[in-house]
Description:
This protein is of the alpha/beta class. Helices cover 31% and strands 37% of the residues. The protein folds into 2 domains: 3-140 and 209-245, Vaccinia Virus protein VP39 (Rossmann fold); 143-207, S-adenosyl-L-methionine-dependent methyltransferases (Single Sheet), CATH 2.20.130. The chain has 7 helices and 11 strands. The strands form 2 sheets. A 7-stranded mixed sheet has the order 3-2-1-4-5-11-10, sandwiched between helices. GO terms for molecular function: methyltransferase activity.
Amino acid sequence: MSNLYGPKLSRVFDKIYKGFIDYNAEYVFYAQLCQENKVKSILELGCGTGNLATYFSKDFDAYLGLDYSEHMLSIAREKFPNGNFVHRDMRNFSLDKRFDAALITGRSTSYLLTSDDLLSTFKCIHKVLNLNGYMIFDCIDATKFIPYIRENPTVLHTSKVGNTNYYRTSEWYSMKDDPELIHWTASYYEQGSAENLFLGKDTVIFKVFTETEIRSALKQAGFEVKDSMDRPTYAFDTFVIVAKKNK
């Protein structure tokens, strides 16, 4: 698991990413897809610190947030005491309830590092969906991202939260044995008038996917792709998949 989601950096994540990601716009995007498909109950995998939980809990009949990091869930419960959250590994989990839709947002699919991880996750989701339920999720687009980091091995992203400015420096490269595995080192800073405050450093390996790989795993897990769309973000070119449980 990334250090960013552990005891030292989880609060740095919660603070800084509010300036990277417009969570209201993120909610509107996914809520529209859910409403178009008559979804009433939602399971969010990789819910993190609960930045989408308050929206979904208010506007849908049922919401459950699932995450692998207890530290992230602790922050989510602080921010949203009435929210429903569970500690699980999306690669291997079961639940008593069933849902109309399962969402994976924020490129959390990138932490599924093998084909077995991906397929296992999809199969677990299949089991907790109602008949004709939907899985809606995003992935970093390997066909665009790998050429990008070869041209841009170091990148700086800025974040403003309230009156405070932050920034993140990224160093990344494709692994030789598997170019779809990305070695990423990120350093986080708070900008000050005299000097910048170092907040922490994270090194992680994550995976990017082609749409062909995703479609193959979905088919094996019992899903039919209903829609696919490109969706650029502040740092990554992604594609979003809407898949329906078909058996």
